[in-house]
Amino acid sequence: VAGTNGKGSSVVMMESILANSGYKTGCYTSPHLIRYNERVKLNGVEVSDEKLCESFSRIDQARGDISLTYFEFGTLAALDIFHHGNIDVALLEVGLGGRLDAVNCLDADAALVSSIDLDHMQWLGMDRETIAREKAGIFRSDKPAICSDPHPPETILEYDEEIGATLYIPGRDFNYQLSDDRWSWQWGSLVYESLPRPGQYNSCQVQNAAGVLMVLNTLKSELPLKAGAIEKGLENFSLTGRFQMLTEGTQTILDVAHNTQAARTLVHNLKQFPSSGKTHIIIGMLKDKDQTGFLSVLTEIADSWHAVSTTSSRGCDSVTLKNELLGLGVTVPISESDTVANAFLKLQKETGMHDRIVVTGSFLSVGDAIKYLEI
Fold first, then answer.
1. Is residue 13 within 8 Å of 237, Cβ to Cβ?
2. Does any domain span residue 187?
3. Are residue 17 and residue 161 in the same domain, yes or no?
4. In terms of domains, do 221 and 251 share one?
5. Residues 103 and 207 in one domain
6. Three-state DSSP string of the chain
7. Which of 27, 104, 149, 262 has the greatest number of C-beta atoms within 10 Å?
8. Both 329 and 367 in a single domain?
9. In this structure, is residue 1 part of a structural domain?
């Protein structure tokens, strides 16, 4: 599964549906929020330190003098764990792009591209067409290739024709429709009515779910689903840090959005659940992200900003973020903190009864919030 946004959600959604059909699953996602173990799951459960270390040791012995990157080493370890775990289905999230990603060492039975937008441009290209071509690199000849993005760049269609994959895109090959708190999905004569929305508060997860259902239906001869598995899988779907709403005490929303497309989705979701009080944003970003583009989208809903320094060599410091906001002409209050924890401590003195706090901008800032909130 590749994509600018939504690939982790798509993987976990598939895992949930397949688990409800009784399949043994191996799930590989990245990055992690708190523990490396989050990246590798067997049957929905994080693998133990012991299993990881045993696998790391096997990979280290097997590689000899071959140099491996951090991600390549981790990907091989995940595949090794899945092999020893005797799974039925491996669900693999691409780390970056697709064509040259370590996950693409496998010839998948089906490939899914969740969305295409501008991110990692120094590696993948400066426009959607070029980025889409990199992501389409996970497609294989004579295999299903699904794109959840309703407006795929032409390069997706061109590469599909070039290699002879079987491409499915929404609006042309399958359709979905929202209705209040339910939705429906259609592929030819096959129709699923009154489906539960995945993710209680995130209306944009339906696009991801539609692509997931297309993947699973193209594989139904090899992986038939039990009655009710789709409904139960969607109902049970949850993923930490994806518009995760905490309602105990001051309402707090955690969202790992870190590019402009994800920022637009975050604003859309916040408007779906308006606050009668103020919206305070704790923001921590990486240096290589489009800070100006991301911040400019969020300015319309922010009543105050709390810029934090992120704990990484790639992290952006709070002063730089504050200057970016000032450069955008932001007039609401802006404060700086060296940590997410200190930003929360400041906000304890400022938030009113009906206010809400949004933590966003990176996996690192959301991970630090989870540690502080002890959830």
1. yes
2. yes
3. yes
4. no
5. yes
6. CECCCCHHHHHHHHHHHHHCCCCCEEEECCCCCCCHHHHEEECCEECCHHHHHHHHHHHHHHHCCCCCCHHHHHHHHHHHHHHHHCCCEEEECCCCCCCCCHHHHCCCCCEEECCCCCCCHHHHCCCHHHHHHHHHHHCCCCCEEEECCCCCCHHHHHHHHHHCCEEECECCCEEEEEECCEEEEEECCEEEEEEECCCCCCCCHHHHHHHHHHHHHHCCCCCCCCCCHHHHHHHHCCCCCCCEEECCCCEEEECCCCCHHHHHHHHHHHHHCCCCCCEEEEECCECCCCHHHHHHHHCCCCCEEEEECCCCCCECCHHHHHHHHHHCCCCCCEEEECCHHHHHHHHHCCCCCCCEEEEECCHHHHHHHHHHHCC
7. 27
8. yes
9. no
Query: Is residue 154 one of the residues assigned to a domain?
Result: yes
The percent of residues in the chain predicted with pLDDT above 90, rounded, is: 86
pLDDT at 236 over 80: yes
What CATH number corresponds to the domain at position 337?
A: 3.90.190.20
pTM over 0.85: yes
Domain end (from 181, 206, 236): 236
Tokens in use for 268? 């859309």
* Residues 207/150, Cβ–Cβ less than 8 Å: yes
pLDDT at position 120 over 70: no
For residue 102, name the pLDDT band (cuts at 50, 70, 90): very high
- Domains identified in the chain, total number: 2
Residue 180 domain boundaries: 7-23+88-236
Of 236, 263, 291, at which residue does a domain stop? 236
Per residue in 17-76, pLDDT (tens digit) is 999 999 999 999 999 999 999 999 999 999 999 999 999 999 999 999 999 999 999 999
- Are residue 343 and residue 263 in the same domain, yes or no? yes
Domain match, 159 and 229 both:
yes
pLDDT in tens, 315-365: 999 999 999 999 999 999 999 999 999 999 999 988 988 999 999 999 999
User: Average pLDDT, stretch 1-15?
Assistant: 95
Q: In what order do the strands lie in the sheet with 111-113?
A: 111-113, 144-147, 166-168
Q: What is the pLDDT of residues 166-225, one digit of tens each?
A: 999 999 999 999 988 899 999 999 999 999 999 766 777 999 999 999 999 999 999 999
